[in-house]
Each structure stands twice: as C-alpha cells, then as structure tokens.
Amino acid sequence: MQQTIQIGQTQRTYIQEPDREIINKLAQEYDFHEVIVDDLIEINAQSKIDSNSKHFFLALTFTKYMENDQKYILNELDVIIWDNFIVTTTSLESQSFNDLCESIKEEAKDISEPYKTSPYYILYRIIDIFYDKTIKSLSISSKKLLTIQDNLADRKIEKSLVEDLMNEDLNKIFIKHNFLSQDIVIMELIAHINWLHDKHLNMYFNSLKVKLHKIINTINVLSERIDSLMWAYDTFVGIKNNDTITRLTFVNAIFMPLTLIAGIWWMSERSMMTGPNNWRLAYPIFLGLCLVIAYVTFFLLRRYFLKK
Questions:
Q1: Under a CB-based contact definition with an 8 Å cutoff, are residues 31 and 129 in contact?
Q2: What is the C-alpha separation between 306 and 47, in angstroms, rounded?
Q3: What is the rounded CA–CA span in Å between residue 262 and residue 63?
C-alpha cells in the first residue's frame, strides 16, 4: 500500500509492506543513495541513523504485538527526509498510521505554526504514535502478569500458566533489545534537531527521549516481575512435590509394619492351619492386630505431621 498526501509545503509518502520494485522506483524518483536503498530493502537488526548524506535517513526497529499468537514480531520503520518531503515505510501494515495520515492532514488546514507542517514534526508524530502503542501493549502485558500472580497466589499451577510465563519472558527479552538499540539513535536524532535550531522541535523530540526511557524502565520492571513470578512458581511446585512425597511417606509408614507382620504371619500360616479349627481363631486375631497397628501408626504420624 502506498499513499501520498500534501501537508502544507511538505509532501509525505507512506508505504506499508514495500517490495523491491516500489523501493527502486522511489530511489530513482528521489535519487536515494544505494546504501539507503539497501537499508530499505533489507530488514535492519538494529536502529540506525545517517544525517551526513544527501538525505536524512532513520531506521527504528519496533515491535508489533500479535494477539492471536501472543507474541511480538519485528516492525521496522524507515524514514527518509530531504527538503520538503518525507518518505516513511513500515514492514507491516498499520491502521494507526492510516489514521495518523488523516489526522495530520486535517490539522494542517488550520495550523498557523509553519513548523507543524515540516518533515521533522511529522517524523515526531510518527515516532510518538509508535511509542504510545508500545506503552499500551506493555500495559496489557502488566495486566496479564497480575492475572498470573493471582493464579499463583491461589496455587492454580497449570500447564497454561507456565506457557504464559514463558511467552511473557521471551516477549520482554525480544522488545527490550529492540528499544535498547534506540537509545543512542534518539540521542543522535535530538542532536540533529538541535543543529536545525528549531526550539519548538527540540521540545517535542526531547519528549520522545522521556517516553523511550519510560518504555525501557517499564520493560525492566516487567522483566523483574516475570523473574519473581518464575521463582514463586518454582517454589510452589517444590512445595507441591514435597506435599506429595509427604503423603506417600505417610501411607508407606502405615503399611510398612503391616507388611512386616504379614510376612511373619505367612511363614507361620502352615502350622496355624494344621489343626481344623486353628484358622478360625488365627485369621481374626491377625486382622484385628493389623487394624490396631494401622490405627496406632496413623494416629502417631498424624500428631507428628500436625506439630511439624
């Protein structure tokens, strides 16, 4: 999908899921450097900035949360700015960007401040909406961790809970590395904006730095909560296993003396059965003795475990 809109004196071209043919066409139209073309075609592993060439180029690696799969995938934002145009591409389709285009277009009709129609102000709005979406997804993740915490508190230790914890842990590791790589890039971007000597833009881009640090701090807090929940899960599983072993030990302790008596009784059974009336007396005595020993053993063990 490709869309071009005019915002004041600035032309904005927005492309979602671009292919090689579209990028090559843009490169010929705007005379992009071959390095920029390669960056647009290939997925960048980390965020990067190039403000020294003919075109200002910025690549930021973001993440998009897939609700059905409960995981994040990479969504790269590439930006090229020169004079009065800005070209932005994203590797995935985004409805929020479509809404942003219309919003900026409507705002531009009544804007009296020239800087609000500049390519760099549009860049600020784009990055800002990415950060807002990330903060929203982290808020959803925080609520999910609260649900997991409540289940652990109620000792609802199920397979799905372990899977949820593992997914959350892997998700946080994935997005953490994406946003950590942006820290230096945003600082360089702010330095570039300062070089433009536009105090209005300085304030906006400094606010992006604050949001980025908020995102990174939130990810760190969520990661610590996940580690804590995993530790709690391991503790509850250990307690559950100990309870199971305790029950088995309790049952074995009851039947052990009975097994011993049965073994001794079996060795004497032939002589007890020699007489025609012996079994009528021997078996009731044997069964009664087993019941008495089982009750005494159960009573003693119950008192012991209750005290413990």
A1: no
A2: 61
A3: 68
